[in-house]
Amino acid sequence: MDKLIIRGGNRLSGTIPISGAKNAALTLIPCALLTEEALTLRNLPRLADIDGFQHLMTQFGVSHTIPGKRPEEFGRNVTLEAMRITSSVAPYDLVRKMRASILVLGPLLARTGEATVSLPGGCAIGNRPIDLHLKVLEAFGAHIELAQGYVKASAPDGGLPGGEFDFPVVSVGATENALMAAVLCKGTSRLVNAAREPEIVDLCNLLTAMGAEIEGVGTSELTIHGVSKLHGATYRVMPDRIEAGSYACAAAITGGEVRLEGAEAGDMGSTLHALRNIGVEIESDKHGINVAANGPLKAHNLTTAPFPGLATDMQAQLMSLLTRAEGTSVLKETIFENRFMHVPELARMGADIETEGRTAIVRGPTRLTGAEVMATDLRASMSLVIAGLAAEGATTVRRLYHLDRGYERLEEKLQLVGADVERVGDD
Ligand code: EPZ
């Protein structure tokens, strides 16, 4: 396992290219199952989770080619083709490695009338049930059975009729599974209290480009008129708003000035609003976002919420930044039950953070010193990298596989803006 060694204190300056969005790509890739024609996705990030999902797709007979390899640039284009689905089983040994695999349930069911997908199990940040995924597919007319750790879903002869579902809790993944099933239903389906994250909009845009008929895109009420077939498409994945927000925090904690090339400010409203309140200067244009932290950082209270609220995926990174802000900040995590695992590691670097249930109280500014720290989940890992960039001395972040799941060529991007960071094999 690799580790990252960061020698803090450098002021970041320069331009970071922002990659395609991991959480959009993970729901765009399974759309290839919805058509027998070729689906070309552009700007896919080179990430472990993306490779893993493409490998899972081969289980169903999906071929993928990488037209025009360009190793020197970030991202890549991939063409996926599911002319014939050879299996509708997503096995445990693949699903357990990547919980987003549950996103093949809806499209497999819609295309073949059946799907057998291993239950994903929990993960570090919470037990992350999939009850809403199953309930919405049942509302569309699917028969769902849980047996031997698998979800077995089947559609009535002739296909899913479609139906209505009002989400009691906003769920990104369940909304995505619902959309990918509804587009091929016999009738019209309606989703109420659907997730509105930009990744959902990206999914709706791709499905529409493939011939789907969806009303209310970008709102929490979606109406989908089922069609009999979808055709192929070529589609560019949206930029990664969480990667961009993470590097904005990295720039800010070092008092730096960084341009996030390709970032889309429209997707990042709540994060940019929080950064401005903390005292970070933000200027956006149609090609990217400029981030500058010239003055002192100010404490600010944050509460995570479904879009357009503050993304839970930004909580850990903003907490690192707030350890260097003047005053006391209160952070409330409302989405997941265990998303403060970065706190004890930040404390070992000198941060003053007290947690009580889903609330964290950060007192600053504290002097951060480098330490050996352990990554536990993707965003917690990034918060440790951010703290390391401002810490005195060297910080060693172990278990980099967490970071490699969500940040394309992280150390290269940080080196582009002057960070003293290197990836070494873990002895
Ligand atoms: C997506 O996860 C993202 N992952 C997560 O990003 C992100 O944190 C999350 O949305 C919230 O924005 C991908 O897109 C691959 P949810 P997802 O269903 O779909 C509860 C990252 O770091 N819930 O919106 O799994 C659930 O327990 C990752 O990139 C149910 O109760 O999230 C949670 O409390 C981490 N039943 C809340 O809803 C269900 O059936 C939100 O979960 C589904 C969810």
CATH superfamily heading of the largest domain? Enolpyruvate transferase domain
Helix content: 25-40%
Classified by CATH, the class of the largest domain is: Alpha Beta
Tally of helical runs: 14
Major sheet: arrangement of strands: 22-23-1-24
- CATH architecture identity of the largest domain: Alpha-beta prism
Number of strands: 24
Shape call: globular
Distance between the first and last residues' Cα: 8 Å
What structural class should be given to the helix and strand makeup?
A: alpha/beta
The stretches of 5 or more residues where confidence is low (pLDDT under 50) are none
3D architecture notes:
The chain is of the alpha/beta class. The protein has two domains: 2-19 and 239-425, Enolpyruvate transferase domain (UDP-n-acetylglucosamine1-carboxyvinyl-transferase, Chain, Alpha-beta prism), CATH 3.65.10; 22-233, Alpha-beta prism (UDP-n-acetylglucosamine1-carboxyvinyl-transferase, Chain). The protein contains 14 helices and 24 strands. Helix 5 (131-139) runs parallel beside helix 6. The relative contact order is 0.16. Ligand EPZ binds next to helix 1, helix 5, helix 6 and helix 12.
Q: What is the strand and helix layout of this fold?
A:
Blueprint: E1 2-7, E2 13-17, H1 22-28, E3 38-44, H2 48-58, E4 63-65, E5 76-81, E6 89-90, H3 92-95, H4 105-112, E7 114-118, H5 131-139, E8 143-147, E9 150-154, E10 164-166, H6 172-182, E11 188-192, H7 198-209, E12 213-215, E13 221-225, E14 233-236, H8 241-253, E15 257-261, H9 269-278, E16 281-285, E17 288-292, E18 302-303, H10 315-322, E19 327-332, H11 342-348, E20 352-356, E21 359-364, E22 372-374, H12 378-390, E23 394-398, H13 401-404, H14 410-416, E24 420-425
Parallel strand pairs: 2-15, 3-14, 6-7, 10-11, 18-19, 22-23
Antiparallel strand pairs: 1-23, 1-24, 3-5, 4-5, 7-9, 8-9, 11-13, 12-13, 15-17, 16-17, 19-21, 20-21
Helix pairs in contact: 1-7, 4-6, 5-6, 6-7, 8-10, 8-12, 10-12, 11-12
Bound molecules: ligand EPZ.
Residues 23, 26, 100, 126, 128-133, 169, 171-174, 312-313, 335-336, 378-379, 406 line the site of ligand EPZ.
Protein name: UDP-N-acetylglucosamine 1-carboxyvinyltransferase
Function: Cell wall formation. Adds enolpyruvyl to UDP-N-acetylglucosamine.
Modified residues (2-(S-cysteinyl)pyruvic acid O-phosphothioketal): 123
